[in-house]
TrEMBL record:
This is 7-cyano-7-deazaguanine synthase. The keyword Metal-binding applies. The gene is queC. CDD domains: Gn_AT_II, QueC-like. Its EC number is 6.3.4.20. It comes from Vulcanisaeta souniana JCM 11219. One of its GO terms (molecular function) is ATP binding. Its cofactor is Zn(2+).
Amino acid sequence: MCTIGGVLIFGDRLDRDRAKRIEEVLRMIIVKGEERGRDSFGIVALDKNGELNVFKSRDRPSIAVSRMPSIINENTVAVIFNNRAEPTTEYVRAKTEDDIQPMIGEHVVVAHNGTIANDKDLETKFNLTRRSRIDTAILPPLLERLWDGSLNGLRDALINHVIGSYALAIMDTHRPGRVWFVTNFKPLYMAWYSDLKALFFASLDDYLIDDQGRPIWDTPAIRRVEPYTAMEVGVDGTWSTVSLRREEQGRRRVLVIASGGLDSTTAATYLLRQGYDVTLLHFNYGHRAETQEDRAVRRIVEFLGVPLLEINMDFFRVVRHSPLLGDGEINRIDRGREGAEFAHEWVPARNFVFIALATAIAEAYGFDYIATGINLEEAGAYPDNEMEFIRLLNKVMPYAVGPNKHVELIMPVGHLVKHEIVRLGLETGAPLHLTWSCYDNGEKHCGRCGPCYMRRWAFKINGVRDPVEYDLPSEAEEEFWRGTRLYEAPKKISR
């Protein structure tokens, strides 16, 4: 909707040169942020005595800032601005300064990116007087009425009363030298310029640096204000945050994306042992081993005593371009070693698609977590098994689900290689004897594809004979498993 931004200035003495350089960076941020708002521009500077310096214009920000007098002087401690993208629902033909953000109350100043849907209800409920019909104008009088000055008080005032979307930058003339940031799903980033002793902030990280090609030692440290967070930062070095999420005690419902293989089965069993309320989610997507995987998942569900959600989909019949989907042959070079170390059987964006579908199901049916069998071993060949993949998806998850919803991706075996996964499965009593790992759909595991190769060696490293059968010569099998002990099938989990 808008760009909001500004700066909090640290240090006891702000000389003319530093003030000039800080203002140059601030003007850069304003101009770069014009892409998110061109309908008006406003900026408010707060000095250490609680006095305000205000400039507002109906021009687009790049024009307005070229006409703006110097906004920072030796007493300035904080500045906030807004490049407004005027929503259709908030359109004002003849704007006055009161219709241009930041909105100024008796002592609270607010820059807002987003939409307040219940501004009229708030006005009536609390008998508030605002200076503009624009929704953001309700925030200064609302906070002046409800906010006790604490960070928790700010959180409570917003989550208990305000309906809508927001990233807020707030100043208070009664408490100069402090800035408050509050976001739900609207973005906000901070950048620390150590040479200027100044904390700049803006709606996107790209606005906070003039040259992405700078060497790392000459680049400001940039950090995101986490979604659904309130933060207070002071020039005295204090820094605190609180969550805006309403945590429900004891909620640990997890949807485990399950193939029927070692990794997801061990992950599900581990989570079950940790006290999670587990449901398995299985996709039949037209792949080679569909029949055996489906059979395995059903047996695993019965063993664990958990619910199963099963989705039959033909999407990947359109995608194709993978040996697992019938295009090409399974790699069996060197009895599976090469197949285990390179993504010969890559299915385009499979995990990405599965996680997207699981996210929709989790949000709709109230699951708190989605778990996968992503692991460190297969991350060596498959990019969508890399821990970073899940970590980055969690960064965007607040924007993938509805307002005030929370779904988190977890990877119980993400940090483990295959023999460690087998060990964890043995320790937790996972039904490894019921799992299917092979790329083929035969009555026995082929023993020569990449997953079979890794599986066999993972069990052997643990000194345990794999309980599944392989389509390999019996003499070779006896020789391979010599010195290992027999697998002891665990007891069915009773709930």
